[in-house]
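SAMPLE LOG
Freezer: B-3
Tube label: C17
Construct: single chain, 115 aa
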Amino acid sequence: MILVHDEVFAVVNVDHSDNMELFAAVRDLDGRLTLVIPEKRLKGLEFTDAERGFRLITFETRIPFDTVGFIAKVSSALAREGIPVLVFSSFSTDHVLVREDHLEKAVETLEKVVR
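STRUCTURE (predicted):
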């Protein structure tokens, strides 16, 4: 089962982050910080670059750490449909970000793949 979040997200490159609402933060080897935050939080935020218009899809199931091929199956199905994806894994499950204009097709595709 999948969950589509109501928020529209942005992937943002910043030099630092204060105490802010965010979905994910990744620090690259060069120290640059990438954040996934609700777009509404961009106002007033200093950032070097941003990609807007993403929707977050969460797989509503616990995915054990020793699971093999789940993301490969998901990303391959989306790739066959020409849907670019950003993948994030958390302690208990996985998430994908897709552009809003691909959301409907992504959900349709994922509902066939994830049962």
